[in-house]
C-alpha cells in the first residue's frame, strides 16, 4: 500500500481537496505551513510530493487530532534491521490513552522513514513520552547520532486542519 504527502499553504491544499473529492485527503498544519496526506489511491495529486510504502499501520487517521512524524534517515545497509525492530517491537503505543493511528512509512525515493502517530491531543502525546512503555521502547537510543542513521532524525509536529479554523 502507498501513502503520499506534500507541503503547501493551507489555502492551496484546500483547493486541491475540493478538486479531488474522491480522495480522502487529510490536511494538517503547523507553524511551517500545511501538509496534505492520503493513502491507497492510484491518482497522483502531487507534482512535487513524497511517496511512501506503508510498512505497518494501526488505527484510522481521523480528521481531528495531533500528529507527530518522526523523520528518520536510515542507511541502505541498516534498513532491514530498522524494519525488523519495528515489526518485532513488544512495547506498543496502541494501548495508550488518546492514541488514534500509527503508520511506519518507507520513502520510495530517499532513505527517510516516517514514523507517523496521531493522538487526540498534544497532552496525550506528552503522556506517552513520559510513560514506562515509551522508556522501554526507546531504552537503547542515545542522544548522539546512531551509526545506521545518515542524518539526525527530526520531528514534524502538527494538528489536523479543520474547516472551522478558516
Automatic annotation (TrEMBL):
Superkingdom of source: Bacteria
Keywords noted in UniProt: Monooxygenase, Oxidoreductase
PROSITE patterns: ABM
Keyword Nucleus: no
Entries under Pfam families matching the protein: ABM (PF03992)
Domain ABM intervals: 66-154
GO molecular function ontology, one term from the record: monooxygenase activity
PANTHER family given in the database record: SIGNAL TRANSDUCTION PROTEIN TRAP
Entry protein name: Antibiotic biosynthesis monooxygenase
Lineage of source species: Bacteria, Bacillati, Bacillota, Bacilli, Bacillales
